[in-house]
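Postdoc handover notes: sequence design on the structure in folder B. Input tokens:
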């Protein structure tokens, strides 16, 4: 059996570590999450050193089997001996295959290992998040399809603005998600460089063929500079920043639903399965889910801020400070995945009160812009048309009516250009359909946008399935 020292670096030390310091500096209580990636990266490295003549073919086989057995260990988080995930794998591999395990560290350093493990963790998490996000986007599209031609008021300054299709409102969130998807894909493409072979800082001390590990770990290429590779955490920053933006979108959605579910708006009844009661006020149904969504987005911003501050001012290359960059990444990934486990089902269960939404869209002069546009078609300059309709709105307000309730004689006080066809140009349908531009809320534009969006999302999901 091995007489392996308990640390990976004990040789030059005579005194034992201060016990409290030892406990305090360990990363295993959180980096145990990296086990599958540490094992994959170790297998990749084993292949590279075997090719360099450090391991025989037989030894490589034993090493790979041992590593795969280590990957299967469960409930490892409580291990008190391991300093970090690298130490843990070495200790456990030694239990599996004896001293042969100690050859694995030939030509490598924990500095390149942690850089590699973190890239693999981020890539894997990004894939899971991408798939959860696509599901949420499709849930929104389905909800938008179900809404058909239902209308709601839109808001600027949180004051009623113009009528829009409910589907148009929902698709605005799909637009945000599609940008989040592309940012994640983009970040994934940039992180696809393999740090293995970078050594501690200056490059491996063995003439390793770096393409071996690169291929084994499915990276696009080896990293180009060993100092950069061992100290770079841009990929982690990009990941958390991307998640912050995504969290911001989720939080805005959550905020709108929270607001729209109040008695004051009454646009939807929150699903009971996703709401809670009050221990004090028996009548209450509280929007805990949307509130927590809003709250959890703060953690994502926290993660990206921590990482950016951590890296700013760090001299090259590896510094132990970098260990502090792990937990924010884990927390951001796990928080986002937790959210995405709920959001699609929650979204699917939403039931809108279309009558209330329509009422909000048809009272309060939301057709005033359409009315002004009517006058511009009669040759009135828009500035003048705006003024005439403003006067008409003022008159209608004072007599407690809507624009379309005014008689032609009344309208003609404000301009001779009004005639019978005014009324058909300010109906709800006309008010929607006059926004007949790409990206507008005209009914046929939204119908087309729904078709295009669903096609795009399903095509992407199909591509992902094919690549797997
Ligand atoms: N646990 C360490 C980290 O997360 C691994 C790298 C340690 N390297 C070192 N030179 N002490 O950063």
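Designed sequence:
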């Amino acid at each position: 059996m091995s007489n392996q020292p308990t640390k990976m670096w004990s040789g030059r030390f005579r005194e034992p570590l201060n016990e409290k310091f030892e406990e305090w500096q360990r990363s295993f209580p959180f980096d145990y999450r990296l086990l599958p990636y540490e094992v994959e990266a170790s297998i990749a490295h084993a292949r590279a050193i075997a090719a360099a003549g450090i391991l025989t073919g037989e030894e490589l086989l034993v090493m790979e089997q041992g590593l795969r057995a280590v990957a299967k260990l469960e409930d490892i988080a409580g291990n008190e001996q391991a300093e970090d995930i690298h130490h843990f794998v070495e200790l456990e591999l030694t239990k599996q295959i004896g001293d042969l395990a100690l050859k694995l560290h030939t030509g490598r350093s924990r500095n390149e290992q942690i850089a590699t493990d973190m890239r693999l963790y981020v890539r894997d998490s990004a894939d899971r998040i991408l798939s959860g996000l696509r599901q949420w986007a499709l849930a929104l599209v389905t909800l938008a399809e179900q809404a058909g031609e239902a209308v709601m008021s839109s808001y600027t300054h949180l004051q009623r603005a113009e009528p829009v299709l409910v589907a148009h409102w929902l698709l605005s969130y799909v637009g945000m998600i599609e940008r989040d998807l592309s940012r994640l894909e983009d970040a994934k493409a940039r992180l696809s460089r393999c740090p293995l072979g970078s050594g501690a800082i200056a490059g491996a001390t063995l003439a390793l063929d770096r393409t071996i590990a690169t291929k084994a770990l499915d990276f696009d290429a080896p990293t180009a500079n060993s100092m950069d590779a061992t100290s770079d955490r841009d990929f982690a920053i990009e990941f958390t920043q991307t998640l912050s933006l995504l969290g911001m979108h989720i939080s805005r959605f959550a905020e709108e639903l929270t607001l729209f579910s109040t008695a004051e708006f009454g646009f939807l009844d929150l699903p009971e399965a996703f709401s809670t009661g009050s221990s004090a006020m028996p009548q209450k149904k509280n929007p805990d889910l949307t509130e927590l969504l809003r709250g959890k987005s703060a953690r994502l911003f926290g993660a990206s801020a921590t990482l950016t501050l951590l890296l700013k001012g760090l001299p090259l290359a590896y510094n132990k400070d970098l260990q502090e960059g792990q937990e924010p990444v884990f927390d951001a990934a796990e928080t986002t995945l937790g959210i995405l486990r709920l959001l699609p089902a929650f979204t699917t269960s939403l039931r809108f009160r279309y009558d209330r939404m329509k009422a909000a869209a048809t009272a309060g002069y939301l057709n005033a812009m359409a009315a002004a546009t009517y006058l511009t078609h009669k040759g009135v300059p828009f500035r003048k048309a705006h003024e005439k309709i403003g006067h008409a709105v003022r008159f209608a307000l004072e007599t407690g009516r809507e624009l379309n309730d005014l008689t032609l004689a009344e309208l003609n006080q404000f301009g001779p250009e009004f005639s019978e066809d005014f009324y058909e140009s300010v109906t709800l349908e006309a008010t929607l359909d006059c926004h007949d531009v790409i990206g507008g809320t005209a009914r046929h534009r939204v119908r087309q946008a729904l078709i295009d969006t669903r096609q795009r999302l399903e095509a992407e999901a199909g591509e992902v399935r094919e690549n797997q």
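Context for whoever picks this up: Residues 368-426 form a domain with the Ribonucleotide Reductase Protein R1; domain 1 fold (CATH 1.10.40.30). Don't rerun without checking with the PI first.
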